[in-house]
Amino acid sequence: MLGMPQVDAFVQIAEPIPEDPRIRHFAFARSENHAIRLKTIHHMSLDPMTLEPISGQPYSANNGPRARRPLDKVDPGIVAMVNMKQVEERARMVAKQHKGAQWAVLLIRYYKDGFPKSEKPPEGDAAPRFDSRPLTGNATGTVEDLKEATILREATTEHRLRTFASVFQVPKNEEVDRAIINCKLINLGFAKPPSLSLAEIGTLLGLVKYFEDATISTADIRHFFWQLRVPKKDMHRFSVRTEDMMYHCAALPMGWSWSPWVAQAIAGLVVAAAAAKMEGDVEAVPASGSSEDSPPPYWYIRDKSGAVRGIVVIWYDNFLVATARKKSASERDWNKEIRAALDQGMKEFKLQWKRDKGTKLAWTIADNDAKYIGIHFSRDAEGVFTWKHIDENVDAWKKAGIAPEMPLCEVAQVLGFITWDAHVRLGRRLSLHIRDLMSKVGALYHTLNEAGVGKRVRDVQPFELTAEEFQALSYLFEELLQNKPNKAPDALLTRVRLLASDATPTCAAGVVLDARPPAAMTFATQIAKYVKRKAHINCIETLAALNTVRSQLQAEPDARNVLFAIAVDNTTAVSWFNGRTALDADVQKELEKLDDELLLRGCRAWAWWEPTATQPADETSKGKPLDARKVAICKGRLETNAEIGLSALQLTRYRTTVV
User: Fold this and answer.
1) Taking the domain 493-646, which CATH number applies?
2) In angstroms, how far apart are the furthest CA atoms of the chain?
3) Is pTM beyond 0.85 here?
4) What pLDDT was estimated at residue 44?
5) Where are the stretches annotated Disordered (predicted)?
């Protein structure tokens, strides 16, 4: 394969393509914290069989080799400097103090013995060796930069199970790139990590608006993954090779499947360490993750009376601290104390915050206002809670615009932007033209992939919009650019109903936590035809969620202006319920019928994935009604979140009917 000639990929499918200025605008038209970025398109030198880069050197069909963009500088003084001795000591304390914190136990074990390997890892002679080829071209420049930052360090010993990775760059902003270590083959050798729980939009709204008059502060950890270290026993599995040198990666690569799990766990331990340093009898209580193996998505800071004094939300390296606003000089400033304690926890682990280039400060602090993971939360002058997505590249989006014919990747990115905005706004009423367009784009990507067409070639395929699609997409695009704030449901709706549903291929059950549970037989009858033909489980999950809402509508025929917040114990079903086209056309029709029913009553329905809220549904997975014992179990699980009212949109306390 190495001896094969390099071929300009675009010559294989068309004449040389001139630079499209709209492509560069779309390259950076994105929210900083969310993956709706279109990577800068490089015309690559590709292997004619795989359509993958041979040398890693960017190549223009018109202008020849391109200069490599500079990388975002990483201070060698922070690389792999985390104090794992202190991290492990704190993890032992958390595991001892909080029953069920198995994630803390696993973190200690994995850093001692290595992370779990796949049952049949592609090792030795049986392993794919594509990435064992020496890196050449611009990739060697990337390696040199990583070496200078001490992320890559010289490997001095041979190892029979050494796994090699390639490196490449993606745009971080218009000035610099981010270096990515391709862990595709490395991940094959490791077992799949536990599912990771993060505070979804509905939960975030409830957490941020829990305190009616709040001080909210945010901070980011600087180059977090690079500050964490690869376990010594696994270091040989993270290797990079040039023609004259072999390296191992000392810090956690962003592309490794276990990196997010490690980051979330260690960030959580920073919170635990912080609480231990605060004055008085203060405790950090972790919210439940999707399982005992999953690190907490957020933590409560409770005083000795048990009152919640602060909430710390974590998305990997992004921290948010919400507390009640200090109203008098004699009051305790909980936000200030928690921030100071988190600073001490970071120092204990030898981790560093990212600091503002102008102010040199780590924390952004405001009353009733915060920007976090691509969302701007605030309260207006009348005290109404609002939120909207953050778009720091609106000018780039405007220049990019919508055209009747666009590269496939641009259409996909606009649809991603629309989906993200709909997700942030807790709405899912997209037009039929948009839903059909999503299906067409997905089908075309799938067809090209099945035909063996490489990603870079797939991305630049021309895609022609119909007149109806162009009109619908242009209208929504214009609405997105306006980005009007969304008002909190409690400002628009009279009541909130918390629902939970669960389904399996053999049966389905719905549980309404603040009303009498519907009859299990109803659900069994409604999903029978789907179960019989072995429909995808996520279709059945979606249908069960839909019928749970519909049953509640039937139970309250006079209900108006109600938000039905439904907990679904399947992340994919949540996505379909909230806006994406379902895999099954019949399920999609049912969703549209529900939309009409809700619209007539001025109601809305929104699904979220909140593990502790779905636990009651697990207790009725055989279609049996709740009894006193199960109610106790459900309440016990719900109370692991310490303050029940914090779950999803700060709903009223649960009232479960005992049958």
Assistant:
1) 3.30.420
2) 76
3) no
4) 32
5) 118-139
